[in-house]
Design brief:
315 residues; 9 helices; 36% helix; globular
Length: 315
């Protein structure tokens, strides 16, 4: 097999959950796509959606491409694809089937870390760090004279012995840095998602859509927060009939699957729309009224709470 030139940041098995109905041949499946900037709506083959040329493959010193990270992600996708129907269609007891929850958590956090936006963040962080270091006093070898940085009251030791190499990093080297941090960061953050309470909101009709950036992070009070920040919520469209809500566990609250009225699903779709980077993806032509919701999205994200009490799981 030839190495993949077109590398996906959203697995095709996930996108097929949102495919237009009626395709027996999965390779020919299409999905509705709406450009969030222009409002243009079109149908597109799933194989051509959420992909970029050599997204995870930097050029090595010998002139060839490195495909190790893409292969690792493909292996993860193959594993997750086998169990995904359990959370997309079934009602597993996640307290007993903890392995399903653990692998699902790994999958979801990997979607955050492998997104092209993270490559842009890597480039921006590099620019900011170089600007910071350049303003600091230098030693005789031109290296910044700084041993620690402080964040949230904690000291982190810095090794500036390779500063020249770091400063000289070009676009190719930054692509390598972006790709190679996916695995260790995912392994580090998986437990943070696993510890949260998982509430699957289930509708009787296919009403949810997804986007090119489907994992939504929300905090009711803070503008700057991370996965470990108390009070941080995550939302993830599992399928057209299921939205996963991950929140801090209070007491012995169980994970579970809960019915959600279709009328409330539209508010959750606004979460997805607000988080989209480039486009929305749906099993049917996206509602044109979504184009009129831009002014209400931020307020809805801050204020939305399910109006139906979650007091009775359906498994």
């Amino acid at each position: 097999m030839s190495e993949p030139r077109n590398q996906h940041w959203l697995p095709q098995f996930y996108l097929r959950r949102f495919a237009e109905p009626g395709y027996r041949d999965k390779k020919k499946a299409k999905i509705w796509l709406m450009d969030t900037e222009t409002g243009e709506v079109r149908r597109k083959k799933i194989s051509a959606v959420a992909a970029a040329e050599y997204l995870y493959s930097h050029v090595k010193t010998d002139g060839t491409r490195c495909f190790r990270v893409d292969k690792d992600l493909t292996e993860l996708e193959t594993l997750i694809a086998r169990l995904y129907p359990r959370i997309a269609e079934g009602y597993p007891d996640l307290s007993a089937a903890w392995g399903i929850k653990k692998l699902s958590a790994l999958f979801i956090i990997s979607l955050v870390l492998r997104h092209p936006g993270m490559e842009e963040e890597t480039q921006e962080m590099h620019r900011k760090m170089v600007d910071l270091y350049e303003r600091m006093p230098k030693d005789s070898k031109g290296r910044p004279m700084v041993s620690h940085i402080f964040e949230d009251g904690k000291a982190f030791e810095l090794d500036t012995s390779h500063y020249d190499e770091y400063k000289a990093a070009d676009e190719n080297r930054l692509k390598q840095m972006f790709a190679e941090q996916i695995r260790p960061l995912a392994m580090n953050l998986t437990d943070e998602l696993f510890k949260k309470r998982w509430t699957f909101l289930c509708t009787d009709e296919p009403v949810f859509f997804t986007s090119d950036n489907p994992v939504i992070k929300q905090h009711d009070e803070l503008r700057t927060f991370g996965v470990r920040t108390p009070g941080m919520h995550l939302w993830f469209p599992v399928s057209p009939t299921r939205m996963l809500w991950m929140s801090d566990r209070i007491g012995d609250q169980p994970d579970g699957f809960y019915p959600l009225p279709v009328s409330e699903a539209h508010a959750l779709n606004m979460f997805t729309m607000a988080n989209a980077s480039r486009f929305l993806l749906s099993h049917e032509q996206p509602d044109r009224r979504l184009r009129e919701l831009d002014g209400f999205v931020d307020q809805a994200i801050r204020e939305y709470k399910p109006t139906r009490p979650l007091d009775g799981p359906i498994w």
